[in-house]
Amino acid sequence: MTKPATPRTKPAGVPPARPRRAAGPAALWRSSIGKKWVMAVTGLLMLLFLLVHMLGNLKIFFGPADFDHYAAWLRRIGEPVLHGAWYLWAQRFVLLVALGLHITAAAQLSRRDLKARPVKYASGQRAKASFATHTMRYGGIVLGLFIVWHILDLTAGVLNPDFQKDRAYHNVYVDFQHWWINLIYIVAMVMLGLHINHGFWSASQTLGINSPRRDKAIKATGSTLAVLITVGFVMVPIGVMTGMVK
């Protein structure tokens, strides 16, 4: 006769195995790499929007009729399939969600980084890391405040000196007649360029696009996009100040 098998017992002092967490979007979001992926994807989405938005802004150099026609067209995209400004509101919703996820992930990653590194860098190490870190962290805060101001200024018209509905050219022109508005706008665009310059490379690292062989090309692409977008946006207030836009 065979003896009945005796149940195995764990050695004393061995802690019980923890239940495995189910994989999924929530688990991915809880992880640092998941948050970095969210930042990378939402950042690239907003970069695409900024590039198109910048090109549209340059139509102001063709005069009031062209610029106002372009602004009106934005409110009619998708017609007759979509009604009125449905596309514009859908775009705003997607961008708002992307921005909210981007900011939330950035804030949580920053908090984790500070907790994981309670001891400050040595001076040499800090010099290497501080510029990019401060540009992304504090520059992001500046850009967040600017977005709120920009919406209240040229979309809601609350902060515009002489807002007139459906007269986009006029609203932009009267805005940049004031030196302090120009200063706010130009400083924000410079911060945006710095953000793009480092963020594009960082996103390529997170998404696995970068490699030692591609590193220089990706950095050059990020820097080129940063300069083009910054210069393109800054050309508008400079055009108004110099009389190129009348």
Features:
single chain; 246 residues; globular; mainly alpha; 3 helical TM bundles of succinate and fumarate reductases
CATH architecture: Up-down Bundle
Number of DSSP strand runs: 0
Q: How much helix, percentage-wise, in residues?
A: 55-70%
What are the secondary-structure elements, in order, as H or E? Answer: HHHHHHHH
What best-fitting shape do the alpha-carbon axes yield?
globular
| Rg over CA atoms | 25 Å
Question: Which spans of ≥5 residues are poorly predicted at pLDDT below 50?
Answer: none
List strands and helices in order, with pairings.
Layout: H1 25-30, H2 32-57, H3 64-74, H4 86-116, H5 123-155, H6 168-175, H7 179-206, H8 215-242
Explain this structure.
- With 246 residues, the protein is an all-alpha fold.
- The protein is globular, with a radius of gyration of 25 Å.
- The chain is built from eight helices and no strands.
- It has helices spanning 25-30, 32-57, 64-74, 86-116, 123-155, 168-175, 179-206, 215-242.
Short account of what is shown:
With 246 residues, the protein is mainly α.
